[in-house]
């Protein structure tokens, strides 16, 4: 999960994910949205791939990026559960909570 949060810590990578939420995009089309060098964008793409937040598809000479929303959702749900936010079920990796005593 730390890889996901490392990836999300950068505003450029968050913007890439927002763009990919709309539709899959080529590396070039994504890079055109930012005022940074191609090698810098390549490094951002590598972090997103390492965090498993994107799926890469080769289409001829193009590289097409797809958002892996399930990985992002899983990381965010795990984070929320850590703080007891919106979690109906306890995290299975944690010891079970003690039942509350009923008031008389």
Automatic annotation (TrEMBL):
<keyword id="KW-0238">DNA-binding</keyword>
<keyword id="KW-0804">Transcription</keyword>
<dbReference type="InterPro" id="IPR001845">
    <property type="entry name" value="HTH_ArsR_DNA-bd_dom"/>
</dbReference>
<dbReference type="Pfam" id="PF12840">
    <property type="entry name" value="HTH_20"/>
</dbReference>
<dbReference type="GO" id="GO:0003700">
    <property type="term" value="F:DNA-binding transcription factor activity"/>
</dbReference>
<dbReference type="GO" id="GO:0003677">
    <property type="term" value="F:DNA binding"/>
</dbReference>
<dbReference type="InterPro" id="IPR036390">
    <property type="entry name" value="WH_DNA-bd_sf"/>
</dbReference>
<keyword id="KW-0805">Transcription regulation</keyword>
<dbReference type="InterPro" id="IPR047796">
    <property type="entry name" value="SdpR-like_repress"/>
</dbReference>
<dbReference type="InterPro" id="IPR051081">
    <property type="entry name" value="HTH_MetalResp_TranReg"/>
</dbReference>
<dbReference type="InterPro" id="IPR036388">
    <property type="entry name" value="WH-like_DNA-bd_sf"/>
</dbReference>
<dbReference type="InterPro" id="IPR011991">
    <property type="entry name" value="ArsR-like_HTH"/>
</dbReference>
<protein>
    <submittedName>
        <fullName>Transcriptional regulator</fullName>
    </submittedName>
</protein>
<feature type="domain" description="HTH arsR-type">
    <location>
        <begin position="1"/>
        <end position="87"/>
    </location>
</feature>
């Amino acid at each position: 999960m730390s890889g996901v949060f490392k990836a999300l810590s950068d505003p450029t990578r968050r913007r890439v994910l927002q763009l990919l939420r709309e539709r899959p995009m080529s590396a070039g089309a994504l890079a055109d949205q930012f005022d940074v060098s191609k090698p810098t964008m390549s490094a951002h793409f590598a972090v997103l791939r390492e965090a498993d937040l994107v799926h890469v598809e080769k289409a001829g000479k193009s590289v097409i990026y797809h958002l892996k929303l399930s990985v992002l959702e899983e990381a965010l749900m795990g984070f929320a559960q850590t703080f007891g936010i919106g979690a109906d079920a306890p995290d299975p990796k944690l010891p079970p909570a003690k039942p509350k005593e009923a008031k008389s």
